[in-house]
Write a structure and sequence with these properties.
9 helices; alpha/beta; Rossmann fold; 8-stranded mixed β-sheet
Length: about 260
């Protein structure tokens, strides 16, 4: 399994981006869907490629027992620093230095496995999804957030970079420069659903994430009411085609058949 070496250099910039209104929009949409799919009672969750720990912390704050795994010790150090400032989460979060290919938990499985914002840095999604599905318990959930191949060029077009947009669209590119300046690869929701179905999982409805606000930069700083309105608009559109097809990210989920232990 390939690990993204280029990412290490931009980790600090990622933490900053994650905190911006634009970054928050993505986390808020994904978290809302996870809460809708997860049981209200605490369950065991594995967050693979947890980075600086945003979703790990959010899920632990909701009462779940979360293992955050990431191959980059610097990203994990940021996550550990954030956790140190949240003593109420002590005992509910474990951080492990491992990538998708090195998840050595024996036969241990989790009620939910999240892998958000990672597939876009890998050459192809199949091997990663096969490894991730192995960690999902019967009745459990797999949550994938990936770059949307269908929407490549939309960000550039809306931001006014017409030449780049036209080049990406005409060449039917499968990758484009990401937020942090790294080239990232897109997947379609249909491909991800087909791959999880191939592992015996049942795909759930997918959502498009950051449809109308993706081209804004991290300086976008709406007031509280404007942010809430933007969030509700994005949530409403995220389920519906053709809007969701233009989301910069796709959030796909799939359930392993069987009786959940929770
Ligand atoms: C864009 S960050 C996403 C962080 C977090 N999941 C989020 O959504 O905010 C990508 C993360 O993937 C990690 N990563 C890179 N290669 C990986 C691999 N093969 N398996 C798991 N994580 C990997 C990087 O170290 C980085 O922390």
């Amino acid at each position: 399994m390939v690990t993204v070496t280029g990412f290490f250099a931009v980790g600090a910039a990622y933490a900053e981006h994650s905190d911006s209104a634009r970054g928050r929009l993505r986390h808020d949409l994904v978290e809302r869907r996870l809460h809708a799919e997860l049981p209200a009672s605490p369950v065991r969750i594995l967050d693979v490629g947890c980075g600086t720990g945003e979703m790990t912390i959010r899920l632990a704050a909701a009462g779940h027992q979360v293992t955050g795994a990431d191959p980059d010790p610097r990203m994990l150090a940021v996550a550990a620093g954030r956790l140190a400032a949240l003593p109420e989460l002590r005992g509910r979060v474990e951080l492990v230095e491992a990538g998708i290919g090195g998840l050595s938990f024996g036969r241990e499985v989790f009620d939910a496995v999240c892998c958000h914002g990672v597939l876009m840095y890998l050459d192809e999604p199949g091997e990663a999804l096969a490894r991730l599905t192995e960690r999902v318990a019967p009745g459990g959930l797999l949550s994938i957030l990936a770059k949307n191949r269908r929407a490549i060029g939309v960000r550039e077009a809306l931001a006014g970079d017409y030449e780049s947009a036209r080049r990406l669209i005409e060449s039917e590119a499968d990758r484009s420069p990401g937020n942090l300046g790294l080239e990232t690869r897109g997947d379609t929701a249909e491909t991800l659903d087909r791959l999880t179905a191939g592992q015996g999982f049942t795909p759930l409805a997918w959502q498009g994430v950051r449809i109308f606000h993706d081209h804004l930069d991290d300086a976008w700083a709406p007031g509280r009411a404007a942010y809430e309105a933007a969030l509700e608009l994005e949530w409403a559109a995220s389920w519906r085609s053709p809007y969701r097809d233009l989301g910069h990210l796709v959030h796909t989920l799939a359930r392993r058949p069987g009786r959940s232990r929770s």
